[in-house]
């Protein structure tokens, strides 16, 4: 029997950054979560069996939990950063960070000093846990002593559980250098465990980036594959230099035993384990290091494709082994819109989630080129991960054909990934129950803008709000037969009106496309027929929309369309 599925990238449209996933043996499906920054509800959970069809089943953060996480008090592009989803001792666990908490605002609006102190002692790092992906989720369990962002939670085969994340390098060699550290943690109490190793009992720095002047080595994930524990990190920042790196350590008897073996090896060489701070050790020695890098790094990036490539900023990946479809990764990417000037790329949708097949390969010859035939490998050595083998980049579409004798995976790149022809329709006044709010600002309910072009009817009562952040947005509303508009671009705001309503009552709409906000009316046509409305409509007003891009507004989020009553 032959079955064929086609997976189209991105798998989740609109602002769905920092994806993390697992294969759930109990549910027999993939479970995926993404970060949501200051949005409530937050940490949406999606499920799929085949990666082609996804269903939103729940949100880990509801309004009550958002209050306990201090989300109402975060600044723009703060809030929930980079979750890691795992099964730990039978529980669903999400490790995450709350960033940019405005302490003064929190105290002024009723947050207790004890709540704020607990969050700050953990640098915003916390765990949520649940017995079901439907919730309820318990927590937050603040991780006292954690430092940095992008926490990972990893349970090794020997039962030890490790907390791993990135922080600014304690003794940086250059601006932007970070370091990845790890420490065992007790998953019952969510407190750190002292390792009792000779070189120190606290945090262990295991990575500082693959290359010289590498910046923002972050989003670490640990995996056991065969006799090795692999470390994957994103590098270069979540922008045009974004990339994904792979490293590994030989650990057939567990990561802790591998660390012990590394310390013995360093001692036998007559070297000392560098001390980062009191009780903290560094496994990046001058002669040897614990984790060794894939010499073909990066294993995934689009930074080499140039600015003619519409899909940029690729990285922040998480691996998964599907029992039928094999190894895959999920990552973020940004679909850019070309600007007016050469080399100008603008992001309106934010970071979206993409998938790619992964194979494991060994080099056919040793890198030392000794000329002794194929390089030696042992049974427990899976080699190194290769993304989209033969393509070397993310695919637009992936066809997976399953037959009795195996699986065939065919990734393809279309001529262009950016710019859909038919406008998407987003009617913010249609009463949808899937809307989100920003922090606890309940006067406007939003939904993600998932593609461009998008057509948004202007409500006959209330307002259409197109938001990038609190200082970059546009508002459109009906006043009699006129459309009134206001744009806010940082400290600059513009307002005006244009006659729009036709005698037949046809509603005007805003088309977001090609770096413009166009107020359009098409007499006798309903905006619900978006293609006809746009093709036959009259443009009444054209506004330069570049101020709504991430490149102009700053931050990490994408545009949303909202309804303000």
Automatic annotation (TrEMBL):
<dbReference type="InterPro" id="IPR006710">
    <property type="entry name" value="Glyco_hydro_43"/>
</dbReference>
<dbReference type="Pfam" id="PF04616">
    <property type="entry name" value="Glyco_hydro_43"/>
</dbReference>
<dbReference type="InterPro" id="IPR023296">
    <property type="entry name" value="Glyco_hydro_beta-prop_sf"/>
</dbReference>
<dbReference type="GO" id="GO:0004553">
    <property type="term" value="F:hydrolase activity, hydrolyzing O-glycosyl compounds"/>
</dbReference>
<comment type="similarity">
    <text>Belongs to the glycosyl hydrolase 43 family.</text>
</comment>
<keyword id="KW-0326">Glycosidase</keyword>
<keyword id="KW-0378">Hydrolase</keyword>
<dbReference type="GO" id="GO:0005975">
    <property type="term" value="P:carbohydrate metabolic process"/>
</dbReference>
<protein>
    <submittedName>
        <fullName>Glycoside hydrolase family 43 protein</fullName>
    </submittedName>
</protein>
<dbReference type="InterPro" id="IPR051795">
    <property type="entry name" value="Glycosyl_Hydrlase_43"/>
</dbReference>
């Amino acid at each position: 029997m032959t079955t064929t599925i086609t997976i189209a990238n991105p798998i989740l449209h609109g602002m769905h950054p920092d994806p993390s996933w697992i294969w759930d043996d109990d549910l027999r499906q993939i479970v995926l979560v993404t970060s949501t920054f200051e949005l409530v509800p937050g940490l949406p959970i999606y499920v799929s069996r085949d990666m082609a069809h996804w269903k939103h089943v729940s949100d880990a953060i509801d309004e009550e939990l958002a209050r306990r996480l201090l989300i109402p008090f975060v600044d723009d592009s703060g809030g929930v950063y980079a979750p890691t989803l795992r099964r730990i001792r039978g529980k669903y666990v999400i490790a995450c960070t709350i960033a940019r908490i405005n302490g003064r605002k929190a105290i002024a609006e009723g947050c207790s000093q004890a709540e704020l102190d607990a969050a700050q002692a953990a640098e915003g790092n916390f765990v949520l846990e649940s017995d079901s992906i439907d919730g309820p989720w318990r927590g937050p369990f603040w991780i006292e002593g954690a430092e940095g962002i992008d926490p990972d939670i990893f349970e090794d085969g020997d039962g030890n559980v490790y907390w791993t994340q990135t922080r600014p390098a304690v003794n940086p060699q250059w601006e932007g250098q970070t370091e990845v550290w790890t420490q065992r943690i007790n998953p019952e109490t969510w407190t750190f465990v002292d390792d009792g190793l000779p070189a120190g009992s606290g945090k262990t720095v295991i990575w500082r980036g693959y290359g010289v002047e590498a910046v923002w080595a972050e989003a670490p994930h640990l995996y056991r594959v065969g006799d090795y524990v692999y470390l994957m990190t994103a590098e270069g920042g979540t922008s045009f230099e974004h990339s994904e790196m792979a490293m590994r350590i030989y650990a057939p008897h567990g990561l802790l035993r591998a660390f012990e073996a590394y310390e013995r090896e360093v001692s036998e060489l007559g070297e000392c384990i560098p001390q980062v701070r009191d009780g903290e050790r560094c496994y990046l020695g001058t002669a040897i290091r614990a984790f060794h890098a894939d010499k073909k790094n990066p294993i995934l990036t689009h930074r080499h494709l140039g600015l003619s490539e519409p899909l940029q900023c690729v990285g922040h990946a998480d691996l998964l082994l599907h029992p039928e479809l094999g190894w895959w990764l999920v990552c973020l990417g940004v679909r850019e819109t070309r600007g007016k000037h050469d080399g100008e790329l603008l992001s309106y949708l934010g970071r979206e989630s993409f998938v790619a097949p992964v194979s494991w390969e060994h080099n056919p010859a040793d890198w030392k080129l000794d000329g002794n035939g194929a390089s030696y490998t042992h049974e427990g050595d899976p080699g190194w991960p290769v993304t989209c083998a033969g393509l070397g980049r993310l695919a637009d579409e992936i066809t997976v054909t399953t037959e009795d004798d195996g699986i065939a995976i065919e990734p393809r790149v279309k001529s262009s990934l950016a710019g859909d022809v038919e406008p998407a329709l987003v009617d913010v006044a249609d009463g949808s129950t899937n809307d989100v709010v920003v922090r606890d600002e309940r006067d406007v309910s939003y939904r993600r803008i998932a593609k461009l072009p998008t057509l948004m009817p202007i409500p006959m009562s209330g307002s259409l709000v197109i938001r990038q952040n609190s200082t970059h947005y546009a508002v459109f509303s009906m006043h009699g037969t006129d459309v009134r508009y206001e744009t806010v671009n940082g400290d600059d705001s513009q307002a005006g009106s244009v006659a729009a309503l036709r005698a037949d009552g046809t509603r005007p709409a805003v088309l977001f496309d090609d770096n413009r906000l166009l107020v359009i009316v098409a007499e006798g046509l309903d905006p619900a027929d978006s293609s006809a409305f746009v093709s036959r409509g009259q443009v009444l007003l054209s506004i330069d929309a570049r101020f709504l891009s991430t490149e102009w507004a700053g931050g990490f989020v994408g545009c949303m369309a909202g309804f303000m009553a």
